[in-house]
Design brief:
Length: 102
């Protein structure tokens, strides 16, 4: 079995039970400052496409319509697109994940 690389050999139980393999618990709070990298929570990124299309209001999320490149539309359709509309409950959950700080 010596011709096989070490990656393919199964470790024996005696090699794992040695004193060098025992994990030592480390208490980070006593030896390091409290402003360590571990305690800082990362900021979430907002979805850039959602920022342009949705906004938060008091009752939940609202959806804005189209405001440019609408010369080919009829006037009735342009007036409908100018209004804001509430999103559904399931869409609101997804949008809240995409806009975490809205």
């Amino acid at each position: 079995m010596s011709f096989l690389p070490r990656l393919f050999l199964r470790p024996s139980l005696t090699s794992l039970a040695g004193p060098s393999r025992i994990p030592i618990p480390i208490n980070l709070s006593s030896s390091f400052s409290t402003s360590s990298i571990c305690s800082v929570k990362q900021k979430l990124k907002s979805h850039s496409g959602s920022k342009k299309r949705f906004f938060a209001n008091a009752n939940g999320m609202a959806q804005t319509g189209k405001s440019h490149l609408n010369t080919a539309f009829s006037t009735g359709r342009i007036n409908r697109l100018a209004k804001s509309v509430y999103v559904s409950k399931t869409q609101g959950r997804r949008i809240k994940k995409m806009l975490p700080y809205a």
